[in-house]
Write a structure and sequence with these properties.
Elements: H1 5-8, E1 16-21, E2 27-39, E3 42-55, E4 58-61, E5 77-79, H2 81-90, H3 93-98, H4 103-118, H5 127-132, H6 136-139, H7 147-159, H8 161-172, E6 180-189, H9 204-207, E7 211-219, E8 224-232, H10 237-247, E9 253-256, H11 267-272, E10 276-281, H12 287-291, E11 299-300, E12 307-313, E13 320-326, H13 327-344, H14 349-356, E14 361-366, H15 372-380, H16 383-395, H17 406-432, H18 441-450, E15 452-454, E16 462-463, H19 468-476, H20 499-508
Parallel strand pairs: 6-9, 9-10
Antiparallel strand pairs: 1-2, 2-3, 3-4, 5-15, 6-7, 7-8, 10-14, 11-12, 12-13, 13-14, 15-16
Helix pairs in contact: 2-17, 4-17, 7-17
Length: 537
């Protein structure tokens, strides 16, 4: 509803704007213009505080001498350390976002991702308050994160899925040829009945909930996620495998998967991209194992204790098989098998002998002729992707979607991917500072949250008082400067010592002859003359 002309014509201070409010929009406030922002080439004004009202056709300024209500007062205590550290580690992602999104959209994505890391389990309707009470509002002011704004934005973000794919492709394009990409998936609860991604998965019988499937690619050398994608919860990993690597244009590197990602599921794609290689385990009932006698081990793996191996080239194909047997794991698997057989009363000597051949064994297939030690080490490091999934669900608390339709799920999962990326950059920073040896990730983040800054009486922001142990943690992360150490003392007597003059005197006095025995001549203690007749009767 437009503001009447007679209201707009009322004399008021310059650089102000009239805002209608109230149930019937018949009340008029005068707000100050405090600046403008650039939105795709458009200069949009930024409204500041309310400085007065128009009442009965007259401008009435607000009495500035009266105390301001606490609801209208500025926030003078904000989270500082966690935001500053996250921004330092994550600022480089802004340029990646700017290459795909407008500046305003990119900064919304950036701030949402940081807030989801700094405040685990935060809901979308809580983002605005978290933004205003953190130093993020000081670093990047004017970011709109209200409940309705975020809800609409995530929906629009998911609708523009081609931009998300372009962002992921830009990241996979810079992966080095010799890097190992670990691929795995996880299930995420989604009880929505209005989207096509939510469905009953293979674990629905135990969980009792619908899920969506999220696939991740993790760069082992860089120790951070590269790309991700959402799939329906009832889709097998092998079915989604080819679409995942082809859509994200993973065309180089070595993909290290598990048995759920067989090479046969994306055989054509691997042949079309000669710089892309694979290293996968084969099932224990595979015919390749018996055909090439892979359980007849021919050597002991150097650098490892109690591991034997065999390496064979598949006939007719450019594929090599690597088999390994860990004696420690073999003993554990045999004990577990005997325990189950005793409990279920299914023990038989024939079954035990058949199983003993495969206890503690693993057979890998690869299209590269690698040393056995290299192949084993590459697959042995695959547990890192399990760490990614664990942090994704527990540390970041991304075990549920908390949104409804397809578009919002896709948009929210994109922000979750960026939050996971930031989480692993934090882990690398904590590990570099040797903090994870004594504290967990969550404990360190809790300490960073306590390091706030306050602004009193209009002064500059100052760090509040914290414990010495917390100060030491901030110093290790280079958030505050370390105290200057006193210079080390040189060995020997310090320069300017009190003994200096005595030494000089001793040196300047000439050496005399050896003193004679007895009391010195002219001594004050010389005995007095005694009358020899005294005391005689």
């Amino acid at each position: 509803m437009p503001i009447p002309q007679n209201i707009l014509s009322v004399a008021r201070p310059k650089n102000t704007v009239v805002i209608a409010y109230g149930k019937d929009k018949n009340l008029y406030a005068v707000r100050q213009r405090i600046g403008c922002r650039n939105d795709n080439g458009r200069h949009l004004p930024i409204n500041g505080p309310t400085i007065g009202h128009i009442i009965d056709g007259v401008y009435v300024p607000i009495d500035t001498s009266a105390p301001v209500s606490v609801s209208a007062s500025p926030i003078d205590l904000k989270d500082w350390a966690n935001i500053i550290l996250c921004d330092r580690l994550f600022a480089g992602i802004q340029q990646e976002l700017f290459s795909v999104y407008s500046k305003s959209d990119a900064m919304k994505i950036y701030c949402i991702s940081i807030l989801r890391v700094c405040d685990h389990g935060i809901r979308d309707y809580e983002l605005k308050e978290a933004y205003e009470t953190s130093f993020l509002s000081e670093l990047y002011p004017g970011i709109a994160l209200s409940k309705n704004t975020v809800s609409t934005f995530l929906n629009d973000l998911g609708k523009a899925v081609s931009k998300i794919v372009r962002f992921m492709r830009n990241r996979t394009a810079v992966v080095a040829m010799d890097h190992h990409l670990l691929i795995d998936g996880t299930l995420k609860s989604d009880e929505s009945k209005v989207n096509s991604l939510s469905d009953f998965s293979r674990k629905a019988r135990t969980k009792g909930t619908r899920d969506i499937s999220v696939l991740y690619a993790f760069d082992l050398e860089e120790m951070e996620p590269v790309c991700s994608k959402c799939f329906p919860g009832n889709m097998l990993d092998a079915t989604a495998y080819k679409e995942f690597i082809s859509e994200n244009r993973i065309t180089k590197g070595i993909i290290v998967g598990d048995k759920g990602f067989p090479e046969s599921a994306a055989h054509d794609y691997f042949e079309a991209n000669p710089d892309l290689h694979y290293l996968n385990p084969v099932k224990r009932n595979s015919k390749l194992i018996g055909r090439h006698h892979m359980l007849d081990f021919t050597g002991i793996l150097s650098g490892y204790e109690g591991i034997t191996f065999r390496k064979e080239k598949c006939t007719g194909t450019d594929k090599w098989l690597y088999s390994f047997r860990d004696s420690t794991k073999a003993g554990k698997e045999e004990r577990d098998w005997l325990r189950r057989a005793k409990k279920n009363k299914t023990y038989s000597l024939e079954a035990l002998r058949e199983k003993q051949q495969t206890f503690g064994t693993i057979v890998l297939e690869c299209d590269l002729d690698l040393p056995a030690e290299t192949a084993y080490k590459a697959y042995d490091e695959r547990w890192q992707i399990e760490v990614v999934m664990r942090y994704y669900k527990s540390a970041c608390e991304f075990d549920e979607t908390h949104v409804q339709d397809d578009y919002s799920v896709i948009g929210s999962e994109f922000c979750d991917f960026l939050s996971t990326l930031l989480t692993f950059r934090l882990l690398k920073a904590f590990d570099k500072a040797c903090l994870l040896e004594e504290r967990t990730y969550k404990k360190i983040m809790s300490i960073l949250t306590r390091a706030k800054k306050a602004r009193l009486d209009g002064e500059e922001w100052k760090l509040i008082r914290i414990t010495p142990s917390h100060e030491e943690l901030l110093q290790k992360l280079e958030l505050i400067p370390k105290p200057e150490e006193p210079p080390k003392k040189k060995p020997g007597r310090p320069k300017g010592s009190k003994n200096k003059s005595v030494i000089k005197e001793q040196i300047s006095v000439p050496a005399e002859g050896k003193r004679k025995r007895g009391r010195p001549k002219g001594s004050k203690n010389k005995p007095k003359n005694v009358d020899p007749t005294a005391g005689m009767s």
